[in-house]
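Need a sequence for this fold. Nothing fancy.
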């Protein structure tokens, strides 16, 4: 059975479809800047801002720089394979700037149609087989920000009906969250609980990802929180299915979506904020059980009592101009 696709959407390709478009190269710059009303003496931080290698993404280069000069700047890889950067600034300062610069190449995900056509009940752990990593079990359980509520169960009952193809379920879950919740910057914070988002029916990308995670896990599926970026340039990339109005919701800062494990297809990423399956407009940095595992930057500031701060974040994800052959400087040649 074919599944309905939310719009706008890059089609999930059956294996016999025509050649997919070539990979797209991006230059990524993520700047986080704190300004303090009074000088602080030290800053300890951990940043999840490095793009990670995936079956659909190559990391060609990456660096993190900090102003003022840090006393310590080290990298760490966690249990889920995410790379993070630890920083320590130990001299008095009134401003902290963390720059992440990367060059990545992103290809269009391809999923076998037969895997997406099986019923969702066949995608729970007892049907995974030996090839699925055991760590995927982590993404079937509750986590600090994800748990089942009556509202979650009501959404699940509407989406995951008996015998429904899993691809159709994921398309419907994406559409339903997108249409039922209002994107409202500033309406929630990074600490807003799931119950508040479900009750108020508004939030931002991380909130919508949390709703999707809760619904998928409530029926026994493995679902993980994914952090990353969206293409921000107003370039003409018709092959990527860009919308006529250009920018996608959430492209000005870090973005978040969710990924659901489908045996035979792997992790299938969906973005309820923009009502789409994840495609070449997305750059992945890290994933975890929910936001608490992979915040873009968190830390501790040591300074005088009552010292307030302001935060500015800017993100640029700009396609690298192609050469005469039609490929980016670091993208693989089309097959």
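Here you go.
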């Amino acid at each position: 059975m074919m599944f309905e696709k939310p719009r706008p959407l890059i089609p999930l390709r059956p294996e016999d479809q025509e050649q997919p478009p070539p990979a797209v190269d991006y230059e990524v710059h993520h700047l986080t800047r704190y300004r303090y009303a009074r000088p602080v003496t030290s800053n300890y931080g951990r940043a999840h801002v490095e793009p990670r290698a995936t079956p659909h993404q190559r990391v060609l280069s990456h660096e993190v720089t900090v102003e003022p000069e840090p006393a310590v700047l080290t990298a760490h890889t966690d249990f889920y394979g995410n790379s993070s950067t630890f920083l320590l600034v130990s001299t008095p300062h009134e401003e902290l700037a963390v720059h992440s610069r990367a060059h990545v190449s992103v290809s269009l995900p391809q999923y076998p149609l037969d895997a997406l056509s099986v019923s969702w009940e066949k995608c729970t752990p007892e049907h995974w087989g030996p090839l699925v990593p055991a760590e995927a079990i982590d993404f079937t359980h509750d986590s600090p920000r994800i748990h089942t509520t009556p509202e979650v169960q009501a959404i699940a009952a509407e989406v995951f009906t008996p015998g429904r193809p899993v691809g159709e379920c994921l398309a419907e879950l994406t559409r339903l969250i997108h249409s039922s919740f209002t994107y409202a910057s500033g309406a929630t914070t990074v600490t807003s609980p799931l119950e508040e988002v479900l009750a108020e029916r508004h939030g931002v990308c991380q909130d919508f990802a949390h709703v999707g995670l809760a619904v998928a896990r409530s029926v026994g599926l493995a679902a993980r929180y994914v952090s990353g970026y969206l293409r921000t340039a107003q370039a003409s990339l018709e092959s990527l299915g860009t919308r006529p109005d250009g920018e996608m919701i959430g492209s000005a800062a870090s973005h978040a979506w969710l990924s659901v494990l489908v045996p035979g297809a792997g992790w299938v990423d969906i973005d309820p904020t923009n009502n789409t399956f994840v495609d070449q407009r997305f750059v992945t940095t890290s994933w975890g059980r929910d936001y608490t595992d992979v915040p873009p930057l968190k830390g501790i500031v040591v300074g005088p009592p009552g010292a307030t701060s302001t935060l500015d974040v800017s993100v640029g994800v700009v396609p690298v101009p192609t050469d005469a052959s039609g490929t980016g400087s670091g993208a693989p040649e089309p097959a």
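For context: The chain has two domains: 24-105+295-319, 109-293.
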